[in-house]
Write a structure and sequence with these properties.
Blueprint: H1 9-12, H2 23-34, H3 45-58, E1 66-67, E2 73-74, H4 90-93, E3 100-104, H5 105-110, H6 116-120, E4 126-129, E5 139-142, E6 154-157, E7 160-161, E8 183-187, E9 203-207, E10 216-224, E11 228-241, E12 244-257, E13 262-263, E14 277-290, E15 296-309, H7 318-323, E16 327-328, E17 336-353, E18 356-377, E19 380-381, H8 382-387, H9 393-399, E20 407-431, E21 434-459, E22 466-468, E23 472-495, E24 498-516, E25 524-544, E26 549-560, H10 564-570, E27 575-587, E28 593-603, E29 607-609, E30 620-622, E31 626-642, E32 645-660, E33 688-697, E34 701-710, E35 713-714, E36 731-732, E37 735-747, E38 750-757, E39 765-767, E40 774-775, E41 780-789
Parallel strand pairs: 6-9, 13-16
Antiparallel strand pairs: 1-2, 3-8, 4-5, 6-7, 8-9, 10-11, 10-41, 11-12, 12-14, 14-15, 15-17, 17-18, 18-19, 18-20, 20-21, 21-22, 21-23, 23-24, 24-25, 25-26, 26-27, 27-28, 28-31, 29-30, 31-32, 32-33, 33-34, 34-37, 35-36, 37-38, 38-41, 39-40
Helix pairs in contact: 2-3
Length: 800
């Protein structure tokens, strides 16, 4: 059954007409190519055919080929193969047996978003917690799962696990850079069988730039407030010959900013506004489809990320948060994080028969980071000082380099590796009137984390502070290893208008950890090994009321794996949940799209984490039970024929009730769930979030405005309105953030872009974790341009 595309307006639709763009944008591209409105271009034969295709699309009679995730035209699926996808496109969302969302290029690039938190703010059921203001270290929660370092999510890039060590250290500070992506797939209610090991919070799959079907050169850059630069350049092509088809893409992403905070001057150190970052990411990917009797495809990718950011864990006192929200205390002048990430994979996809498709992939990721940051002042913890600056006035003076006490600063140096292989197969067959699509797969995965940290001192007593270096390993010295085997099977059974998809996932993990003496000798002091396993069944269904109305629902068991040390040393078990979902979708002929879903997640063993709190143990604890329920809704509609323009409309809203059913079963202390009693609201899960957007699209120009809202939340399960014993306690104010964007098509190949983020200059506290409250980014401006050149559309034959 074929449905019209999922119409989520210009906020969520690609402006690539070959990927079924909105009619207003199709008209813009047709005009650009045809030379209308002063473009003054003569049509080549290919351009004329392209314009005719656009006109058919606008009339609702398109015969355009399907475009896969690598930009390859798929005319006959028996001859052309593509990798397995999580969702695949906005169209595919309509038939999901659960709630999902697909964000494409426009949602990311046209608004010039670097911050993934701003991108996801529009998505119902997804909650984000700011930390640095740039989105470099996102904390993402889906339907009430713990968002700390996004550790309760399965995070992938191009269908491959991309977290540094998802089993051994799920809370590692890494997330793919959303700004360089062509799309983001989000699964909420239907993710628990095929994906793991963390599904209590759902699945996010980032999609890198696809390989273009024809030779294409792309360059985009913006410049904005605080000397912020975002630049992306890539070139790609598909070459055909006796060897088959070979496609490639080479890409470079670079971004940097001076930052929007200012470090106080003190003790001979000048004030500094260098609180920004530098990020560079090259990537190369390819595919080869040989001329063989059996359709097959080889894919490969290598990507590298290098980040250097003058970021800190340290926030402000309550008074300073109001008076000088973009201030940093002088003692943080050395705080910096540097990271390197290598990611790679090779895939083989084949179709041995008309009813069978298989994929085998091997992957290897390596990640290293060192966050050099202060952790104590005058012997006191920073979060304690900031909660009670009067009581701890001497330590507070030390933090500001106004006293004579030393500061403890730690080099949080860690290395990670993750590698493995997966095999997936789809088998299609029929039994009587029932059509089956059986998906079966398995993965063998290994990852580890090696922590070898160093404690230094910042000596403040003299005329200028200086650093004394400690011994390697003095700040934490240990190793954790996990080897996991996962298998799963799903059978999507369709009869008439009803589709039912039962399935089950099984995970078994062999794990070990070693603690070493806190020095450079690497002498073992503790060792343990063991294993753990779990089953995660689920069932989802869809029922087509008509060709344009669908009901969906499901019941799934969500899981989240404990790290080796937490499990073997502290007895932390798998986090388990049972999720229920029921919803409906409408995709009207008039372009109206609407969706509503109710959900209930019952956490049978909620685990609380101390990760991200700057603690050496950074352990977890079993937190008993919690219940999260709510309603999500979204709608979009394009108003056409407003003169020569189109007005896109979009709205989404989420209501969530997330509460503890029982208090921490053990531990507590600095854990954000500490102090919670039955009925307490879960930290950082807003009761309400909403987004609304509109704009106007002309033939060669467009303006978009989006407003997002979140309600107040609490920093800990103690649900205190102001800090008592720690600055992590207290309320996080909600509010409205408005973003404005505009573009103008100068020529068929050149587009100007500009906009304002946080138009109303709202000063909203992003987080109280790790060490006190920090404010989000202020109002910022950006301008830039985009160049897209395709020789085939310019009438150039590269083969001559």
């Amino acid at each position: 059954m074929k449905h019209d595309r999922l119409n989520l307006t210009s906020f969520f639709e690609s402006q690539n007409a070959r990927q079924s763009a909105p009619i207003g944008v199709l008209a813009l591209m047709a005009l650009a190519i045809s030379g209308g409105s002063g473009f003054g271009q003569d049509l080549t034969a290919e351009e004329a055919a392209f314009v005719a295709e656009i006109e058919r699309e606008a009339a609702g009679t398109s015969s355009a080929p399907v475009i896969d995730d690598d930009g390859v035209a798929v005319v006959d699926t028996s001859d052309t193969l593509d990798t397995f996808v999580v969702i695949g496109s906005t169209d595919a969302v309509f038939n999901l047996p659960g709630s999902g969302f697909y964000l494409d290029t426009t949602a990311i690039q046209d608004a010039s978003y670097l911050n993934v938190n701003r991108i996801l703010a529009k998505v119902p059921g997804v909650y984000v917690r700011e930390e640095d203001g740039f989105g470099l270290f996102p904390n993402i929660s889906i339907r009430g799962g713990d968002g700390t370092r996004s550790e309760k999510l399965t995070i992938m890039e191009d269908g491959i696990l991309t977290a540094p060590a998802p089993y051994a250290a799920p809370s590692a500070y890494y997330s793919p850079n959303a700004a360089r992506m062509s799309g983001i797939e989000i699964l909420k209610g239907s993710s628990q069988v095929r994906y793991g090991p963390h599904t209590t919070g759902g699945v996010i799959n980032y999609l890198s730039t696809p390989i273009p079907e024809d030779m294409k050169v792309f360059f985009r850059t913006t410049y904005g407030s605080d000397n912020t630069v975002l630049s992306q350049a890539n070139v790609g092509d598909v070459i055909e010959g006796d060897f088959g088809r070979f496609g490639y893409l080479a890409e470079l992403w670079w971004s940097r900013s001076d930052g929007f905070r200012t470090i106080d001057g003190a003790r001979g150190l000048p004030a500094s506004d260098k609180t920004g970052f530098n990020l560079i990411e090259p990537m190369f990917k390819f595919f080869w489809e040989p001329n063989s009797d059996m359709p097959m495809r080889f894919e490969g990718k290598y990507g590298y990320t290098e980040l250097d950011a003058d970021e800190t864990y340290t926030g402000l006192t309550e008074a300073d948060l109001i008076r000088t929200p973009y201030r940093r205390y002088a003692g943080t002048y050395l705080d910096n994080i540097s990271t390197e990430h290598h990611r790679s994979y090779l895939k083989w996809i084949a179709e041995p028969g008309d009813d069978l498709t298989v994929e085998v992939a091997g992957y290897y990721n390596k990640f290293a980071r060192n966050w050099y940051k202060i952790r104590k002042a005058g012997g006191e913890s920073l979060h304690t000082i900031l909660a009670n600056p009067v009581r701890f006035s001497d330590a507070f003076d030390n933090l500001r380099l106004m006293g004579r006490g030393d500061l403890d600063i730690r080099a949080n140096a860690r290395t990670y590796e993750a590698y493995g292989v997966h095999a997936i197969a789809d088998y299609r067959f029929e039994t009587g009137e029932v059509a089956h699509v059986v998906n079966v797969g398995g993965r063998y995965h290994t990852d580890y984390i090696r922590r070898r940290q160093r404690d230094d001192k910042i000596v403040v007593g003299g005329s200028a502070p200086f650093v004394t270096r400690g011994k390697d390993g003095s700040g934490g010295n240990r190793f954790q290893l996990a080897k996991a085997t996962s298998v799963w099977i799903e059978d999507e059974m369709t009869v008439g208008r009803l589709s039912v998809k039962p399935g089950v996932r099984y995970e078994t993990v062999d794990m070990e950890y070693t603690d070493y003496r806190s020095d450079s000798t690497d002498t073992p002091t503790a060792f343990a090994e063991g294993s753990t396993d779990i089953f995660a069944p689920g069932v989802g269904l869809t029922f087509d009321l008509t060709d344009r109305q669908t009901l969906f629902g499901g019941v799934y068991k969500g899981i989240s794996a404990p790290s080796p040390r937490n499990h073997l040393r502290s007895g932390v078990d798998w986090e388990e949940s049972i999720g229920y979902e029921l919803g409906a979708r409408h995709n009207g002929e008039n372009g109206l799209y609407a969706e509503v879903a109710g959900f209930l997640t019952d956490f049978e063993n909620l685990t609380g984490t101390a990760a991200g709190l700057g603690l050496d143990g950074a352990g977890s604890s079993n937190a008993g039970e919690a219940e999260v329920y709510g309603v999500e809704a979204l709608a979009s509609y394009d108003i056409h024929d407003v003169g020569a323009s189109t007005i896109p409309l979009f709205a989404s809203a989420t209501y969530t009730n997330a509460t503890l059913k029982s208090a921490l079963s053990e531990g507590g202390g600095d854990n954000v769930l500490a102090g919670g009693v039955p009925g307490a609201a879960l930290p950082y899960v807003p009761e309400w979030k909403a987004a609304i957007g509109t704009g106007i699209e002309g033939d060669r120009w467009g303006i978009d405005v989006t407003a997002t809202y979140v309600s107040d939340t609490f920093g800990t399960a103690a649900n205190l309105h102001s800090p008592d014993t720690t600055s992590r306690q207290g309320k996080i104010d909600g509010g409205v953030v408005v973003d404005l964007g505009a573009h103008f098509q100068v020529s068929p190949r050149v587009k100007l872009i500009g906009g304002i983020h946080n138009l109303l200059d709202e000063q909203l506290t992003g987080s109280r974790i790790p060490e006190g409250p920090r404010i989000g980014a202020p109002r910022t401006y950006f301008v830039g341009f985009e160049i897209e050149w395709e020789p085939s559309q310019a009438g150039i034959d590269l083969e001559k």
